[in-house]
Automatic annotation (TrEMBL):
Recorded superkingdom: Bacteria
PANTHER family: NITROGEN REGULATORY PROTEIN P-II, NITROGEN REGULATORY PROTEIN P-II HOMOLOG
Assigned keywords, A-Z: Nitrogen fixation, Nucleotide-binding, Phosphoprotein, Transcription, Transcription regulation
Designated name of the protein: Nitrogen regulatory protein P-II
Family according to the record: Belongs to the P(II) protein family.
Cellular component terms (Gene Ontology): cytosol
Job of this protein: In nitrogen-limiting conditions, when the ratio of Gln to 2-ketoglutarate decreases, P-II is uridylylated to P-II-UMP. P-II-UMP allows the deadenylation of glutamine synthetase (GS), thus activating the enzyme. Conversely, in nitrogen excess P-II is deuridylated and promotes the adenylation of GS. P-II indirectly controls the transcription of the GS gene (glnA). P-II prevents NR-II-catalyzed conversion of NR-I to NR-I-phosphate, the transcriptional activator of glnA. When P-II is uridylylated to P-II-UMP, these events are reversed.
Gene3D superfamilies to which the protein is assigned, alphabetical: 3.30.70.120
GO BP, sorted A to Z: regulation of nitrogen utilization
O-UMP-tyrosine modified-residue sites: 51
Any Pfam family: P-II
MF term (GO), any: enzyme regulator activity
Length: 112
C-alpha cells in the first residue's frame, strides 16, 4: 500500500477527484495549503501598492491505494491536474505500513 500525495492548483480539484473516482479510488483527503516551488511566488498590486506574494494557495490531495493502483492514480492525477503552466504541482508517493478501518476493524487493503 502507498499514500499518493499531490500538490495541485485549487481549481483542478474537481477534475482530479473525478479522475480518481473513475479509477476506482474511494476516499481522499483534501487540505488547503500554501507554498512555492521554482516560481518562488509573484508580485501583485493592491490599492496602488506592490507587494510580494511568497506563498501561493495550493490544494494537497492524499489517497491511500493498493500497490497495483499506484501508477494508475499517479497517471490520473497528473493528467487531470496538468495545465502546462508553471506551478501545476507535484506528486509524491510514500509507503503505507498499515491501515485500519476504525468502524469494522478491517486492516490493510481491506481497510482501503
Amino acid at each position: 500500500m502507498k499514500i499518493v500525495m499531490a500538490i495541485i492548483k485549487p481549481f483542478k480539484l474537481e477534475e482530479v477527484r473525478d479522475a480518481l473516482t473513475a479509477l476506482g479510488v474511494h476516499g481522499l483527503t483534501v487540505t488547503e495549503v500554501k507554498g512555492y516551488g521554482r516560481q518562488k511566488g509573484h508580485t501583485e498590486i493592491y490599492r496602488g501598492a506592490e507587494y510580494a506574494v511568497s506563498f501561493l494557495p495550493k490544494i494537497k490531495v492524499e489517497v491511500a491505494v493498493a500497490d497495483d493502483q499506484v501508477q494508475g492514480a499517479i497517471d490520473a492525477i497528473a493528467q487531470a491536474a496538468r495545465t502546462g503552466q508553471i506551478g501545476d504541482g507535484k506528486i509524491f508517493v510514500v509507503p503505507l505500513e498499515k491501515a485500519v478501518r476504525i468502524r469494522t476493524g478491517e486492516t490493510d487493503s481491506d481497510a482501503l
